[in-house]
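Every protein is a chain of amino acids, and every chain bends into a shape of its own. The protein below has been through that process, and both of its lines are reproduced in full.
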Amino acid sequence: MKITWLGHSAFRVDLGTSHILIDPFLTGNPKFTGSLDEAAAGITHVVLTHGHDDHIGDTVEIVRKTGAEVVANFEICMFLGGQGVENINPGNTGGVIPCGDFSVALTPALHSSGAVVDGRSIYLGNPNGVVLLPEDGPPVYHFGDTAIFGDMELIREIYQPEIGLIPVGDRFTMDGRAAALAAKRYFSFSDVIPCHYGTFPIIDPTPQAFLDAMQGTATKIHVPSIGEALLF
């Protein structure tokens, strides 16, 4: 399995015959300086945690170019269907969605979810985290945007994720200290990658608070540069 951080909460995950983009906010992301076409080359699936612009991002353009399948909650799938996206695979919180050689579990998240259209806020279902469940490979938990909450323990018990992609930037998500508490108290990750930091001045510029709070744990912490691929 190869995981590439693309800035903010966007990741590319390559596993088996599947090539997945999670929350592909690339155009308009001031920290992403790569090529959208290169980041999306060969993509088979786009997995979305919730409906905010900095997570849906370039989904419509990517699907138009690649024919990739969108995996998200029902409301997001219907919203994107209204923009011409036909290849959708909807689900909802607590469900598991088959996607070929992997499945996606939609987990709870404490956040909000919606889009602003013509100055009006459009409800796009409850926010989610997502667990990628490969047929062959470690389960990967992308927390989405969330606060810490006690039922994370159930996510560990049910899905046993080994790799965590965890937001640490504060204000709109957990801060570094809360994210570290979540990782240590509720999970037994072999590896974690912090995200959702440094994109805009309003959130934390670095993951340092998370790194400090994770000291002394057995979990391996990766802080890749944007566009850097990690092998698991």
About this structure: The radius of gyration is 16 Å. The CA atoms of residues 27 and 58 lie 7 Å apart.
